[in-house]
Amino acid sequence: MPSSCKEIRQELVDCMLKSDCVVKNGNSVKECFKEEHANDVPKECHSILKSFYECRRGMLDPRMRFRGNKTQ
After folding, report:
1. pTM, entire model
2. For the chain, what is the mean pLDDT?
3. Do 48 and 42 form a contact (C-beta atoms < 8 A)?
4. Alpha-carbon span 31 to 16, nearest angstrom
5. Which of 13, 15, 31, 72 is 20 to 30 Å from the Cα of 40, by its Cα?
6. Residue 10 CA to chain centroid, in angstroms?
């Protein structure tokens, strides 16, 4: 995994570990990604998740292999 995706992934994990879904409700990070817990996760984590998906998608796009992942 390119270093840009590793950084975004770590940022996502840190954000999720600070969310109410994990801290107050005691759910795992994996459970908090499900639809029923969407209200307990801050919008910041959702935007980081979208960035992570786009980074991962960029790894599979043949055009992006030559250009590299976009860094934000």
Report:
1. 0.74
2. 83
3. no
4. 11
5. 72
6. 8
